[in-house]
Amino acid sequence: MIISSQFDGGNIECVDSSDPGRVLLNIRNDNQSDFYQWFYFRASNVRDLDCRYLVGNAAGAAYQKGWQDYRAVASYDREFWFRVDTSFDGENLVIEHNSCEDQVYFAYFAPYSMERHADLLAFAQTSERCQAETLGLTLDGQSMDCLRFGEQDAGAKIWIVARQHPGETMAEWWMEGLINRLVDHSDPVVNAILDKAVIYLVPNMNPDGSRRGHLRTNAVGSNLNREWDNPTAEKSPEVLCVLDKISQTGLDFGLDVHGDEALPYNFIAGTEGIPGWNRERQQQLELFKMTLANLNPDFQVEHGYPPNSAGNANMSYCSNSLAQRFGALVMTLEMPFKDASGTSDAVQGWSPERCGRLAHSCLDALHLCWDQVINR
After folding, report:
1. Do residues 295 and 365 make contact, with C-beta atoms less than 8 angstroms apart?
2. For position 375, what pLDDT does the model report?
3. Cβ within 8 Å of residue 226, ≥6 positions away
4. CATH numbers and ranges of domains, the chain
5. Would you say 340 and 298 are in contact if contact means Cβ atoms under 8 Å apart?
């Protein structure tokens, strides 16, 4: 048996693979950070072997509650990802699997590589309604990519950013689903929205962390979703260049797309604690959430984060910062690493395919709520 993770987004340290029944592993920390939980590795020469993979430092991971009722994903072709038997004994995360192929990949969630990201951008820009722009460079020298759908001077300015935390790969699967719909010239909902708006997308806010196999931070250990009040070229050039662009265009509606390690739900967090929060904004938030819940049973409104009390919002968060700065409805969409409780899928759990369908539903919800949630 050989364990490897020296590929785009890979993360694991092999301690001992001499016994297939007790393969000892550890997850690497994010660079210059104590965060870790994302893993992605390949096991080779394992056909027809009863293998037990023990992640020995799981108890010290960033979100220990994330291991409760969690099942890892596996794939033979890196396209279809299925859930495998997984347990947490308080110390080790234990993954058990008998592979029907010579090689099998395991991950915390279905990976979204930087190569696939490049393919997504290349595909999107071939649409005549899309323009691709590089806003700047990361600390590792990767491009900060932005896609614009619609005419630059069109009415409302919609901004959607994803994957500030690189291990939350479901956020870019959501983006892929959104882009696949936006390029469809026959889609009446897309056409109606682009008749009165321009949509700006940043499919991956954290390319460095994504390629390095990080859970939560960029190349120098910065949590980008704590940088929006004062981004710097030294610590968070990703946020700095995106915020500069948003300041140029303006913003009338925003989404920040994430994943949550512990909660088995799709939900939206608002910006209730910002100084500019008011009754109108509360009504807009509730309307969008209820509309989305009615459109897609995978989304729900009963469970999520408790709202901040008045004046207690952390203004370094993306949604809080943008909502206050632009006086617009900005929300954080969270998806699970586990499964969506109430609409479970025993084979795949929460999956890339379902991420894409939720993105479609978000567009439908925006269309239905347009006059109420877009302030112009």
Report:
1. yes
2. 75
3. 314, 316, 317
4. 2-107 (2.60.40.3120), 114-373 (3.40.630.10)
5. yes
